[in-house]
Design brief:
two-stranded antiparallel ribbon; 16% strand; 39% helix; alpha/beta
Length: 275
């Protein structure tokens, strides 16, 4: 593992950069707007330009911009899908101003329409917002499978990708808590899970990892993040993940239940475990 960071509060890009330096990271994740609302901050070009320069000088790895949780392109409600389209357009326009950033989102929930219909609606909106010339790659996040969530199987993610026109602009962010809760045994069978991912989607599509432990058992489909080593994944499993030759060069971001000092300690521990 050579690229590590955590989720930081969006108080401005230079401020997020400083928080990342404090915790010992060289990448970070941030919400593009209120995670449970719809409003976005006014663009501050001076702050963005200064951040881009600092990031370049510090040789930061690609960042992860996270879409709000309220975004659901698979909804049966047309107003919810219109909101998703609006957020996608606004966020992708903003991210074109930032160097080396991925745009990560939860694929959505089909809310009773069925998996295939939900996948169709997700791909439909992606094809409305992704352009061939954009810099920003859009990432589908692996999900735990709560309720009618789409994206808790590699096959579901592959079906979405297959329907996207500009497939070079789309990738996957693997969340270790989510895939474990979704039934993929990355604790005992990491090699087998990665082979399955490669066979179905292709490891070339895997661009980032949310590194979290899980409060729940394998296959629980609940999505409850835990601090590293305090959940059901174990420190040894975390060690194998961060040092795996097919994963170690990706951007790793912590979403464990921590404040900055807690993230700083986890990053210190991960660096010690890195080979």
């Amino acid at each position: 593992m050579k690229n590590i960071g955590c989720h930081v509060s969006n108080k401005g890009y230079v401020s997020m950069y400083k928080d990342t330096i404090y915790v010992g990271g060289n990448t970070f994740q941030f919400f593009t707007r209120n995670p449970r609302g719809g409003s976005s901050k006014e663009i501050d070009l001076e702050d963005i330009n200064k951040f881009n320069q600092l990031k370049k000088e510090a040789n930061f790895a690609p960042l992860i911009a996270h879409a709000p949780y309220t975004l659901n392109p698979a909804s049966s409600d047309e107003r919810v899908r219109e909101f998703a389209l609006k957020v996608f357009k606004e966020d992708l326009a903003l991210l074109e101003l930032i160097d080396d950033v991925y745009y990560n989102f939860h694929p959505g929930s089909h809310v009773g329409q069925g998996e295939e219909k939900g996948i169709e609606l997700i791909a439909e909106i992606l094809n409305m917002v992704i352009t061939p010339k954009q810099k920003t790659m859009v990432l589908l996040e692996t999900m735990a499978g709560k309720g009618s969530e789409i994206g808790h199987t590699f096959i579901q993610l592959k079906k979405i990708i297959d329907k996207v026109v500009y497939q070079d602009k789309i990738g996957v962010c693997l969340d270790t808590c989510h895939v474990f809760d979704g039934g993929y045994n990355i604790k005992d069978n990491l090699e087998e899970v990665l082979k399955e991912f490669d066979d179905i989607i292709g490891l070339d599509k895997l661009k980032a990892i949310h590194l979290n432990d899980s409060k729940n058992e394998l296959g629980s489909r609940k999505d409850r993040h835990e601090k590293l080593g305090l959940g059901n994944l174990s420190i040894e499993a975390i060690r194998k993940i961060i040092n795996h030759p097919k994963l170690k060069d990706l951007s790793f971001v912590l979403e464990t239940p921590n404040e900055l000092d807690g993230y700083k300690e986890e990053i210190r521990m991960l660096k010690e475990m890195s080979e």
